[in-house]
Write a structure and sequence with these properties.
The chain is α+β, with helices and mostly antiparallel strands. A two-stranded antiparallel sheet has the order 1-2. Strand 1 and strand 2 form a beta hairpin. It has one domain: Arc Repressor Mutant, subunit A (Orthogonal Bundle). The C terminus is likely disordered. It contains three helices and two strands, in the order αααββ.
Length: about 120
């Protein structure tokens, strides 16, 4: 499975993180780009990526509804995949898998890259 591979350190170590150059090919709206950037910053190979919509909104200085729309855009572009987590039949949180271009879904094992 091809996912965005952060370094062994968390993406926010040393006060910065790396943004893949191919992200600019998607011409995302500023809000979707901002939300993707925050998810990339939070992404950790050991712990995953699971900020709440409210946490994303607070960090980015935008409304929760704007976060929801940005996440929809990122899913439509196949840049992320959301996994919903439940306990006792009630949703408790989401986790986010950051996908590389060409990935169809979390279960796609033969993702193609755009070169």
């Amino acid at each position: 499975m091809s996912t965005v591979k952060p370094s062994k350190k968390t993406n926010s170590d040393n006060g910065f993180f790396k943004m893949p150059n191919w992200i600019f090919k998607f011409q995302l709206s500023p809000v979707a780009f901002y939300v993707y950037s925050y998810l990339l910053r939070c992404n950790n190979p050991q712990n995953g990526c699971y900020p709440s919509k409210r946490t994303i909104a607070n960090a980015c200085g935008i409304a929760v509804s704007s976060v929801s729309r940005a996440l929809e855009i990122l899913e439509e572009e196949r840049l992320i995949e959301r996994k919903h987590h439940y306990r006792s039949g009630r949703q408790i949180n989401n986790s986010y898998l950051l996908l590389e271009p060409g990935c169809i879904s979390l279960s796609d094992r033969d993702c193609l890259t755009d070169g």
